[in-house]
Amino acid sequence: MRVVIGEDEVLLREGIAHILTNDGFEVLAAVSDAVELEHEVEHHLPDLVLTDIRMPPTHTDEGLLAALRIRRAHPGIGVVVVSQHVQRRYAAELLEDGAGGFGYLLKQRISDVRTFTADIRRVAAGGTALDPEVVSVLVARASRGTSAVAHLTPRQVEVLGLMAQGRSNAAIAAQLVLSEKAVVQHTSRIYDALGLPVDADDHRRVLAVIRHLQAVVPPAP
Amino acid sequence: MGSLEIALIFIGILAALTGVIAIAVGATGAGEPVADIGLVTLAWIWAVAGIIAWWRRPTNGTGPLLLIGAVSVFLVSTGYVGAPGLFWVNAVFATTPLGVAIHLLMAFPSGRVRGRLAVLAVVLGYVTCIVFDTARALTAGTAAFEVLSFLQSVLGLTSMALAAIVLGRRLRAADAAHRRVLLPLFTYGLLAVICLPLLPNLLFPMGVGFDVVVSLQGLLLAGLPVAFLLGVLRGGFTRTTPLEALSEWLAIRGASRPAVAQALATTVGDDTLRVAYWDASRGQYIDERGERAPFDPDAADPDRAWLQVRVDDELVGGIEYDARMIAEPWPVRRAAEVLAIALDRERLTTQLLVSNEALTRSRVRIVDAADRERSRIARDLHDGLQMQLVLLGIEAQTIADAAAESATTGDIEKLRRGIDLAAADLRRLVHDVLPAALLERGLVAATEDLVDRLSVPGTLVAEVDETAITTSTAHTAYFIIAEALSNTVKHADASHVRVTLGQRDGRITIAIEDDGVGGARIGAGVGLRGLADRVDALQGTIAIRSEPLRGTNIEVELPCAS
User: Which carries the bigger pLDDT value, residue B266 or residue A47?
Assistant: First the structure.
């Protein structure tokens, strides 16, 4: 699996490259700013791009903007954005802007190497990896708003959160120590409650859940 | 004692001497001592009234007019001292006191004759007295004498009629309080003017004695100056002079130049006069804008003179004037003494304005410095500690993996999770210091993130052009919203909160409304107090409406660019 990395801190850039190489990724390029990143992506057309949001020269959001452009230009390339802080708006922009797999994770997640590499492999395969913190913001916001999320049981909310993070039924079952069958039952109830069409495709299922959570509006005062 | 007082004393002495001489001369042989003494006494009464009026109301013209009356009576008295050479003087001026009486009536209360009709009455009056008396004296014993006498009577009556019309109009225009003074004065004045020439014609045919008639005339004439003096001093017109002076003073307040300098320049008659204020803290003279005064008191320019102004021995300023035009410093010094307090006030005002400006600038600098410090801390944490925790986590995990199922693997995993927890704490801290969204995307994104994470349902409506908002304004706005929302969550027990961001006329408007219990106020916590200070420093406004049980509404306006 071929990957291009964008991260301005040299130690972290090398650390990430090291982790990915150890896990069997082929690191084509590891660069320190957004312009170089886009340049390398055009050059290599990798399977996956992993980038920091805040990078030179302005140290604001050029990493994210580059990621969004790459998503539009190359729907086949999975894009993972990492940052020290996660917020709903960036997730929404990544969700809207493109068709392929995307990930949005806290930098701190990198240190849980096994989960992290599994997440980005899923993205490279067209899946989704949304940070639990963003998901909890989305779910909490939805449960206060005009969504049926407020009527779900705590267990169902838990399953919904893991679904939104992009995890498969098997992974959810493993994490919650349930049978896969039980997870399927939970998910179909959640689908019914939220009025989502049942979809066998994991990726499309995740996107539908995230779109539902994102679309919730707060109640009028 | 001022020059006016000195001059008035001289006038008094001269009047006394003139009278004494007239009496002394009249007492010898050819004179008529009784009439002479009577007329001199009359003149003295007029002179005393005139001096008092002039002394008490220096800017009022009544005093000088009364003195003219005194002179006219002295001139009349020349006819009775028994000096043949002076007989003609009496013949020419015998009736001038009547002219002066009309003049006084027309000029009351200011001492200046106002209106064309009034001027005509006064001129006719003097012409009737002086010109016709002269002509009659020259034509005495001829046929023309009778014609002239008739004409004089007609003119005299015309003049009085005009005066009566003017006085009638003035009475009608006056308010009730003034009318009470004007009516008796005018009535007495008019009656006196009419009766003085008519008394002999009326009373002699009735067999009244000459002495009685003359005494009556004398009494009427003596009453006139006393009546006018009382009218000027107590007639309710006393306020006209200070009011005039005050309005002049007020009128120059709007001038480009400081009022004191303007007033001084006018008073001493030097338009190049300049005033400087002493700034004790900086030890230098300053001008009205608080800048160092452009002239140097120590400079040896022989054409310019310099005067220090003190209030209670304390230096408050200085006056620089043209030494060629004003030879002696005392008129400037006297004027400066009068205006010293006003000058001190201007000095304090100037210093206050200057220090206020400096204070405002320093407050803005403090706000900016605090912002820069926040940004630096947030960046340092982001680039330093946050990154190191990621690296430590990775390292711990790498060691755990290498240890492959040994006894320490679990411990190292635990260590990594501990690092993750520390990283999460640090994330919250950085977010509180300066949220990433504010740096990366600006005010609206950061506010949105804030509202997203609220435990109370919230809405954000934002219509702002963030490119027009400076960093310090955006930061202040953000921290106000954050503080207000944190108060809502902690204290308001609200079921909904709404944040509105708008923009108009170069100002950003922020409104945070909740439907909670209310009762919030600026002084209640350090948070809002500090923010109100920040808003103030940026010259914005903050208003809190928070009645118990009716929710809290905080409205803030900030200039987009400070």
Answer: A47
Q: Please state which CATH number belongs to domain B441-559.
A: 3.30.565.10
Poorest-pLDDT segment among A41-55, B262-276, B468-482, B500-514: B262-276
| CATH numeric code, B3-241 | 1.20.1070
Task: Specify the CATH number for the domain of residue A206.
Answer: 1.10.10.10
Contact check, Cβ <8 Å, B390/A110: yes
pLDDT tens readout for residues B232-241: 776 544 433 3
Structural domain contains residue A221: no
B452 vs A contacts (CB less than 8 Å): 87-88, 137, 141
Q: Count up the domains in chain A and report the number.
A: 2
**pLDDT level of residue A26 (50, 70, 90 thresholds):** very high
Distance from C-alpha of B462 to C-alpha of B447, rounded to nearest angstrom: 9
- Asked if residue B121 lies in contact with residue B162, where contact means CB atoms within 8 angstroms, the answer is yes
Q: What is the β-pairing status of strands B314-322 and B274-279?
A: antiparallel
The verdict on A6 and A112 lying in the same domain is yes
Write the residue in A53, A110, A137 that is nearest to B452 by C-beta: A137
Min distance A192 CA to chain B CA atoms (Å): 25
Q: Which domain holds residue A203?
A: 134-215
| DSSP codes of every residue in B177-206 | HHHHHHHHHHHHHHHHHHHHHHHHHHHTTT
Residue of A nearest to B387 (CA): A12
Residue B290 or A18, more confident: A18
Per-residue pLDDT tens digits for A163-185: 999 998 899 999 999 999 999 99
A108 vs B393, B440, B452: nearest CB: B393
Q: Which of A112, A130, A148 is the last residue of a domain?
A: A130
Alpha helices by DSSP H, B436-525: 436-440, 443-452, 471-487
Give the length of chain A.
Answer: 221
